[in-house]
Specification:
Carbamate kinase; 8 helices; binds uridine-5'-diphosphate
């Protein structure tokens, strides 16, 4: 079983695919899945995107560095929103972010983060990498290395990485394991190459799972052979 886990969720995990805002149904699902692993006493960090609010590249009339700042703020909004939802469901969590100074947002300090984990809090890392021109996949890789995670679990809506598009080809085969070298060479789109490269350099594996199959997150954390593992 993994003991230190960084979970990367897209903003759409809060709104439903292609949606904006927050969906009660999605939040209930998310809380249930998190509750299953929270009781295992693991140290859990979460990086959440902002696709349900703003994605920089969707704001066509904006300079990208401006649009990306809105995106990063969106990740803080999502983190605070999630903190509130967790709280209502008896799950202790704390939001840390290097980009905003608000009463409910703590600064990103490694020593404090360790203390939050020790005290049983889930740490919600808001604000992306704090730089425009990046995505929350890269932020997830950074924070995973910083928190010394055993695994970065990327929550997706696909069962893993395939050798070809399973929607188009019946004989498409899912990889159980691939290397970073292969993932980068084959331009596997499931995660940024920046994220792959940070994880590869720091000997951290990424597990791509279908988060929307009930129980998959628990299986992933327990080390069951699901999804696709990207290995160094
Ligand atoms: N963003 C950024 N720097 C970062 C992380 C995020 O500028 O380090 C911005 C960027 O505009 C991005 C948006 O925040 O589109 C939301 O993140 P992302 O697209 O990764 O969200 P997701 O698709 O996972 O919901």
């Amino acid at each position: 079983m993994y003991k230190r886990v960084l979970l990367k969720l897209s903003g759409e995990a809060l709104s439903g695919e292609g949606g904006k805002g927050f969906s009660e149904k999605m939040l209930t699902y998310l809380v249930n899945e998190i509750q299953k692993i929270h009781s295992l006493n693991i140290k859990l960090g979460i990086v959440i995107g902002a696709g349900n609010i703003f994605r920089g590249k969707e704001l066509k009339d904006f300079r990208i560095q401006m649009a990306d700042q809105l995106g990063m703020l969106g990740t803080v909004i999502n983190s605070l929103y999630l903190k509130n939802v967790f709280e209502k469901n008896g799950i202790k969590s704390i939001v840390v972010s290097p980009i905003v100074n608000l009463p409910s947002v703590m600064p990103l300090k490694y020593d404090f983060i360790e203390q939050y984990f020790e005290a049983g809090y889930i740490v919600l890392f808001g604000g992306g990498t704090s730089n425009p021109l990046f995505t929350t996949d890269t932020a997830a890789a950074l924070r995973a290395v910083e928190m010394n995670a055993d695994i970065l679990v990327k929550a997706t809506k696909v069962d893993g990485i395939y050798d070809k598009d399973p929607k188009l080809f019946e004989d498409a085969k899912k990889y159980d394991i691939i290397t970073y070298e292969q993932a980068i060479k084959e331009q596997i789109k499931v995660m940024d190459t920046e994220a792959f490269s940070i994880c590869e350099k720091n000997n951290l594996s990424i597990l791509i799972i279908n988060f929307f199959k009930e129980g998959n997150l628990l299986k992933a954390v327990e080390g069951e052979n699901i999804g696709t593992k990207v290995n160094y």
